[in-house]
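RECORD TYPE: protein structure
NAME: Metalloregulator ArsR/SmtB family transcription factor
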Amino acid sequence: MAASPSRHDVFQAIADPTRRQLLRLLGDQEMPVTVISGHFPMSRTAVSKHLRILAEAGLVKGRKVGRETRYRLDPEPLLELKQWLAYYERFWENKMAMLKHYVESGKLDGAEPAASLKAVQPTKKE
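PREDICTED:
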């Protein structure tokens, strides 16, 4: 049985909403965990665990200043996420282009059946 990797990848790290909030918070300035934890309704230990996962993914860096560690965002690993998402942008752009064509065609007066919007609207699974 293979051992699980000790490092988290970017996708695992950003999967949690708290960690995404941490990244947003640290995008503006470097902060110690005591200040960071004040922004969340959880213990400092819980915040530290989230920071550790982000650090393992390379998304945050910590540096010692006296007795505290200050954390900051390192956005470089997010390039992997951006490259992965770039492939799927073509699907979004296609839907937006279809919507733009529909709106600009002037067929919003009710003469065109709503069925033509099916290509734009997501379908519900029953």
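COMMENT: Residues 16 and 43 are 16 Å apart (CA to CA).
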